[in-house]
Write a structure and sequence with these properties.
- By secondary structure, this protein is an alpha/beta fold.
- The radius of gyration is 26 Å and the shape is elongated.
Length: about 400
């Protein structure tokens, strides 16, 4: 009998070791969170590790009650990644006694006597698949556990062995987590919309896309203002777009110039304001931006963030830019992101609704109004923006 113990920084890495050494049909016998003492994990300064005990000789039966008289099989097309036969995600920090079933994961000793009842393997493997899919989307382990447990609580008995139905329920759960602001709405009064954010996230290109859509497709009178006087290239880039689309453009460096620029654009329907990229750690620059926006008095302030950044980085950036009065979020570079699980901690932490998603450099294309359902499917890998 081959029973082995693996330790890694994350559950995903530990399961990858199990798959590689014991094969895709291995069974997870026990998982727990342990303190990393010494070794390569200690050398990296990690204080926690995931320990997985697995075997390729032991079949782990489910303790979930059966609601079907015969075993079923899950269609192969519903499986995106190779699976280790596990009941579901790992337990929290403290291990439960073996006599007390965990909500999702049931740990069993390799020498334990299997119960008389044998539930279909699909009933427990479905939970593991959901958990693995969330980890593949780079959702944190804690959040993945929470989401799978909520699905388990809400799922009807006849859904629990159907991965596709569970994934649909999971998508609906994620959809409910994502607030949506909708696209910019124009009325009778002039609308002033500012875009802010760190350097390199695509603010200028996003403004060009919005301006082109308002001007060319909606036939609106659009004006551009840039206060990004730190980078000559940014000014020239926006001026090029303004010339192509035939839009008035103003360059503003002081509060007085801001008032003058707004006065000269009294007849436009929407003014789009480009701002200089600010490091979220540069408090002085953030305060300068706040002062300039206070003079302009924008109706909306969209925080532009790149979807390739980590969830923790996005949440921290949103927190720092809250000081300038942000009202909604624009996520860019979805075409460059390997996964979108970072969106969930961002919207939870910032509580800002999403307005637009962008997925390329093409102007006026590669931009879409944010939709919660669509983004939830994208997070789970069920859909890609732009059909790519």
């Amino acid at each position: 009998m081959s029973v082995r113990t693996y330790r890694a920084k994350t559950m995903q890495e530990a399961l990858a070791l199990v798959r590689r050494e014991l094969g895709p049909k291995a069974s997870v016998l026990r998982t727990r969170e342990v303190r990393a003492a010494g070794g390569w994990l200690g050398w990296l300064g990690s204080s926690r590790a995931i320990e997985v005990v697995a075997s390729n000789c032991v079949s782990v039966p489910s303790r979930l009650p059966s609601r079907r008289s015969s075993e079923q099989t899950i269609p192969s097309h519903s499986r995106r990644t190779p699976s280790v036969q596990a009941v579901a995600p790992p337990q929290p920090l403290t291990q439960r006694p073996l006599s007390t079933p965990a909500p999702i994961l049931t740990a069993r000793s390799a020498a334990a006597t299997p119960p008389a009842f044998q539930a279909p393997a699909e009933s427990h493997d479905a939970w593991f698949r959901l958990f693995a899919d969330l980890l593949d989307a780079e959702v944190s382990e804690d959040l993945a556990r929470e989401l799978v447990e909520r699905v388990r609580t809400e799922a009807a008995p006849d859904e629990r062995a159907d991965v596709q139905r569970l994934k649909t329920r999971l998508a609906a759960l994620i959809e409910a987590e994502i607030p949506i602001a909708g696209p910019i709405q124009l009325g009778d009064a002039r609308r002033l919309v500012a875009l802010v954010g760190p350097t390199g996230v695509g603010k200028t290109t996003t403004i060009a896309k919005l301006a082109a859509n308002f001007r060319l497709r909606e036939k609106r009178h659009v004006g551009l203002i840039t206060v990004d006087t730190y980078r000559v290239a940014a000014v020239e880039q926006l001026r090029t777009y303004a010339d192509i689309i035939d839009l008035p453009m103003e360059i503003v460096a002081t509060p007085r110039e801001m008032h003058q620029a707004l006065a000269r654009m009294s007849d436009v329907e929407v003014i789009l304001m480009d701002t200089a990229g600010r490091s979220p750690r540069d408090e002085v620059r953030i305060q300068e931006l706040k002062s300039m926006l206070a003079e302009a008095g924008p109706d909306e302030v969209h925080l532009v963030l790149s979807s390739v950044a980590s969830g923790a980085s996005l949440a921290k950036t949103a927190e720092r830019f809250a000081a300038v009065g942000t009202t909604s979020l624009v996520l860019t570079k979805l075409d460059e992101a390997a996964s979108l699980g970072n969106v969930l901690p961002l919207v939870r932490a910032s509580r800002l609704p999403l307005s637009y998603l962008t997925h390329g450099q093409n102007v006026p294309d590669d931009i879409a109004a944010a939709e919660a359902g669509r983004l939830a499917r994208m997070i789970l890998g069920l859909e890609r923006l732009g059909g790519k």
